[in-house]
Amino acid sequence: MVQAGPTTTEPRVNRKILNRRDLLKRGALASAGLLAAPMLNRGRFRIFANSPVEYTSRAIDLVQQSVVIDMLGPFTLDFAKQNRWFTKPESFTASDLAPYKESGINVFHVAVGLGGPDAYDRVLRMFASWNGFIANHDQHLMRIDSAADLNRVKSSGKIGIMIGLQNSDQFRRVEDVDFFHGIGQRVSQLTYNARNLIGNGSTERRDDGISDFGVSIIERMNKVGMAIDVSHCGDRTTLDAFEISKKPVLITHSNCRALVPGHPRLKTDEAIKKVGAAGSVMGITGVRMFVKGDEPTTIEHCLDHFDHVAKLIGPEHLGVGSDVDLYGYDAMSPEANRALRAAYKGSYGFREKIDIERLNHPKRMYDLTEGLIRRKYSDAAIQGILGGNFKRVLSAVWTT
């Protein structure tokens, strides 16, 4: 997707005199890198260079006024490029940074799935790489460690990096929770798709619950102020976590099984109601097979998942967990895409495409906001969904 920039030709617009408020708004948008064409009729703007896509001033304002948090936003799915950034931080240039700055996303939870017998060492290396990368670019990036960081990240002008993991195999003993919290981990998903010492993943053969060891890990996570995530957990493990934890349990990135019957990776209405009872938040993802079981699959079907959760427990328990980088899975190289698909069981239900049009580009938060406006959500509800709700619950969970 072409980045916003000046255009060489202007569309036809009504010759009307702009008042001072219009001029100030246009100036603010231009300085933020958002305005790629003059204001169009009906208070709409083009924010993509060489693109006819228009966004309402209301949607633009809501994104710009919100602390936007993507509770599962890998920094990039090009892991070879990410490795270059980690080993040679100077290779991350201004042009690499620009799409993140222009996305409207203030905080990326960059968790990936790592597990297995060498998980401790692999996770330690990954977190060390992130810490080094952030330190080398501290004029543009900041690690999110606390509620205070969430409060100041937007005004800082920096991109917030929340360090988490989509597994907890790195916890070999209870004391490891303290260690990894000490080096920056603020979220840990109890399991990935398979069974570990804590509990069961969503595609495991049996739907068992949390082990005694898992109970001790949850208790220690509560104590140190590390958020518990159950996005990939099996049904029983998910429900057990809500019953055991004394603090709200997060679903950072999942959708509603009621709308995609039988998909093991999605959450039951019973689990979603636990989110509401705990005062927690569920992040909705735009991954195609988690949105609808067949074609066509569009952004409107993704919005149906927001509506389903809102009707069950209220919009104050909704957030965004895209589960994709700025450009999407379908933009990966063919080899990387094949390797990705091969790493999952058939129950994941991959189809030809993994992404959804309009949710597969750097400014997708604007498209999502327009969709929420179409669905008649209030401004306050939309700001909560874009990040305010996760900000609220993380601020509570991260206390000690």
Description:
The chain is α/β, with parallel strands linked by helices and 400 residues long. It has 2 domains: 1-52, no CATH class; 66-397, Metal-dependent hydrolases (TIM Barrel). Helix content is 42%, strand content 8%. It contains 15 helices and 11 strands. The chain has helices spanning 20-31, 57-65, 79-87, 94-102, 119-136, 147-156, 175-182, 212-224, 235-244, 269-278, 288-291, 299-313, 334-342, 364-374, 379-397, and strands at residues 44-46, 54-56, 69-70, 107-109, 141-143, 159-162, 164-165, 187-189, 227-229, 282-284, 318-320. A 4-stranded parallel sheet has the order 3-4-6-5, with helices on both faces. The longest helix is centred in the last third of the chain and has 19 residues, at 379-397. It is globular. Residues 1-28 and 35-41 have low confidence and may be disordered.
